Amino acid sequence: MDTGNYTCGSDDQSSITNAIAVCNQNNVIVSPIIGTGATCCVIELASSIAKATGGHYAQTYDFESEIEGVITGLIESANIAVDCNTNEQLDICEIANDPTLDCQSIEGNGILDICEDDLDGRFNSRYVSDNRRSNP
Fold first, then answer.
1. Which long-range contacts (C-beta less than 8 Å, at least 24 apart) are formed by 119-128?
2. In this structure, how many other beta carbons lie within 10 angstroms of the beta carbon of residue 79?
3. Rounded distance, CA 96 to CA 91, Å?
4. DSSP state, 35?
5. Alpha-carbon distance 119 to 33, whole Å?
């Protein structure tokens, strides 16, 4: 399937513009991973949403061999290393080793339950190093 000639249309750009607005309203950072064979249109749209939401984008050429490095790079570039309970273990590692540490919400939200703000469920800014995720 040759998709290299596809050009972005107004519907594509409108969708990205809307997604950017929703992400920024909700303090969501988007870091898309672009697969092998992506068109220039897809790359431009991914770059656009990443830049507008404070994220980064990455492109893979061999998914199987590159995905671990790509995800690690995106996590490191996002500067979201959080140790909310100051036990010298990253929260994402603690949750990966024991998912029951993040079960306060139905599917988990990536925040240790002991670090969540019980009053309104929003991120508690004293635990989050990423300045985009703070209580107003």
1. 123/27, 124/84, 127/82, 127/84, 128/82, 128/84
2. 10
3. 8
4. P
5. 35
Residue 112's CB is within 10 A of a number of other CB atoms, namely 22
Question: How many residues make up the chain in this entry?
Answer: 136
For the chain, 136 residues long, the average pLDDT of each consecutive 10-residue run is 64 95 91 87 92 88 86 72 78 84 71 65 38 36
Residue 72 is encoded by which pair of tokens? 């690690």
- The H or E element that residue 59 is part of is strand 58-59
Instruction: List the alpha helices (DSSP H) in the chain.
Output: 10-25, 40-53, 63-78, 91-97
pLDDT of residue 136: 35
Residue among 99, 81, 79 nearest 90 (CA): 81
Check: CB of residue 90 under 8 Å from CB of residue 67. no
- Comparing C-alpha atoms, which of 136, 82, 74, 76 is closest to residue 112? 82
- b or e along 30-54 (b: 16 or more beta carbons within 10 Å of the residue's beta carbon)? bbbbbeeebbebbebbbbbbbebbb
